[in-house]
């Protein structure tokens, strides 16, 4: 008789043209071994699914009811009714790429991640960086393909290690698991996810009014500090985006805290209004930034001397770049760059200026500050990234957990 092993999954999907709700799934491991009584709980996370211009990406499939298999299976074996368990540390990316591109039949895929990649894990090992690079390559493969079988992620533990060892042993002997031969069965029973037609974009803003000089009736100029907070990754619940763009959000909140203290005293209040904004939809062409800018009162928008967008500023290389769309000889651009350069020199790191013109005919926005530039507001993006990321890249992947 088989004993059921239950495991609950936390899962979510990402915002885009196609949107899918957060699903709570149950992973059931059934050990089909005579007279064996064991149970364990494992959290699993489903691969994202989304559409771009009506083209599906990720996996549309969620239900599982198949026996487990490993890379030790005999070549030529039929895996159409098997869930292939792949530890990241043993992953052959070329094998998986061929399997997906050739549309070979597979019952499902379970990818086991090292515990060192779990969000919030502060243990740093020499092998961790290699795992991050491999996971980034795997994630890029999975989110840019239309995969015809369910895909899940889980973290290694003693129970998964024991299960995989048993599966490998049987596969190596040519004893592929079936209902009659025994083995482990992975079961997820859940209804198909529903498309969310109108995703919600939520922007958050704060305001610190400056102080006019005595007798000055003119409207004070404004400086805007902006950071996008949304993430995109292969498994939404694991896409915490520690650097992209958690670092930008943390930097904005710290700047807001410091200036809030200064501006609470009229004697230390500056001659600038300070406008802070946390914007949604960053991975999706900075749609939230565009929506927020257009919602601003025209007088407020026109009062903005310049905006500084913070994106992936948690650099370990002691170098940041100021990306701009307006010519470097623009007075405000000079002011921004000189200010950052002076601070960088005092703190012992480098700042460089990179100029890139906006292609108005292209709706794709490379940097957040380009949404400002399209509305004729001077802006710059401070980032550790030297080149603009492609759509949905550097947006909080599974490997971005530092």
Automatic annotation (TrEMBL):
One Pfam family cited in the UniProt record for this chain:
Nicastrin
What is the protein's major site of localization?
A: endoplasmic reticulum
Can you say what this protein is called? Nicalin
Q: Which PANTHER family match?
A: NICALIN
In the record, biological process GO terms are:
regulation of signal transduction
Q: Which UniProt keywords apply?
A: Endoplasmic reticulum, Glycoprotein, Membrane, Signal, Transmembrane, Transmembrane helix
**What parts of the sequence cross the membrane?**
none
InterPro entries per the UniProt record, alphabetical: EF_Hand_1_Ca_BS, Nicalin
Instruction: Please state which protein family the record places this protein in.
Output: Belongs to the nicastrin family.
- Tell me how this protein sits in the membrane: Single-pass membrane protein
- Which compartment or compartments is the protein found in? Endoplasmic reticulum membrane
Indicate whether Transcription regulation appears among the record's keywords.
no
Q: Which GO terms describe its cellular component?
A: endoplasmic reticulum membrane
In the UniProt record, the signal sequence range is 1-38
Organism taxonomic ancestry: Eukaryota, Viridiplantae, Streptophyta, Embryophyta, Tracheophyta
Q: Which domain of life is it from?
A: Eukaryota
